């Protein structure tokens, strides 16, 4: 049904309390970062937003976050998901707090939505009131700035980004052109005031729903 919420879930999660020197070097860890938290989520963009939330909830840094090719999930592995994140911190307690915040947000925070009654087009249109260190670096904005995180299938996304930019006083920080590693999606990160970011998200959602319900129009 149109407007139906599609939530993500944690696929796999664990910790390395005291990381080996070689792995620390491979991940370019800082000298004080001795503990790692490992997590995969079933939806990539939700996982990335959740990783950012972890940096606000605990003294941790996202040292690795990437989409995963998901074509073989469920065939050769059940635990890969669509995205992986690695949190680094000074001690296991901090990393545990970060992982818990990340996991809670994956399952209870941002979500995708059905764009039409047949479930043929899903989208994410999420306003982040204050970014943590991870998404701030991704979007190349100061930490604590509002962010509109908008993702949809390719035509819906491009149409929606245009609508968002026309409806609200926001600017694009980063674009995701199709295809992505996990699917044929596209989108953008946009920043402005919190109210402007929310307006951009609302306009994006309306535009995506329009295309999803009117896929062939000239």
UniProtKB/TrEMBL annotation:
Keyword Cell membrane: no
Cross-referenced Gene3D superfamilies: 3.30.70.1710
Coiled coil: none
NCBIfam families, A to Z: PRK15405.1 (NF011934)
Alphabetically ordered keywords of this record: Bacterial microcompartment
Principal subcellular localisation of the protein: other
Residues spanning the signal sequence: none
Domain BMC circularly permuted: 1-111, 112-215
UniProt cross-references to SUPFAM superfamilies, sorted A to Z: CcmK-like (SSF143414)
Domain of life: Bacteria
Localization per Swiss-Prot or TrEMBL: Bacterial microcompartment
InterPro entries per the UniProt record, alphabetical: BMC_CP, BMC_dom, CcmK-like_sf, EutL_PduB
Taxonomy of the source species: Bacteria, Bacillati, Bacillota, Clostridia, Eubacteriales
Full protein name: Ethanolamine utilization microcompartment protein EutL
């Amino acid at each position: 049904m149109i407007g139906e919420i599609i939530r993500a879930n944690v696929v796999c999660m664990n910790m390395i309390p005291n990381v080996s020197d070689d792995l620390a070097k491979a991940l370019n860890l800082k000298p004080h970062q001795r503990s790692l938290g490992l997590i995969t989520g079933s939806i990539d963009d939700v996982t990335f937003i959740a990783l950012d939330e972890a940096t606000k909830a605990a003294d941790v840094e996202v040292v690795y976050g990437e989409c995963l090719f998901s074509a073989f999930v469920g065939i050769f592995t059940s635990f890969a998901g669509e995205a992986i994140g690695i949190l680094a911190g000074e001690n296991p307690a901090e990393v545990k707090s970060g992982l818990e915040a990340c996991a809670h947000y994956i399952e209870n925070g941002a979500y995708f939505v059905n764009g039409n009654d047949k479930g043929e087009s899903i989208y994410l249109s999420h306003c982040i009131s204050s970014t943590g260190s991870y998404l701030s670096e991704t979007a190349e904005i100061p930490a604590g700035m509002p962010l509109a995180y908008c993702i949809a299938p390719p035509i819906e996304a491009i149409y929606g980004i245009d609508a968002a930019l026309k409806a609200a006083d926001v600017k694009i920080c980063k674009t995701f052109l199709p295809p992505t590693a996990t699917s044929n999606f596209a989108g953008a990160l946009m920043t402005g005031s919190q109210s402007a970011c929310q307006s951009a998200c609302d306009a994006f959602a309306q535009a995506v729903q329009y295309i999803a319900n009117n896929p062939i129009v000239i």
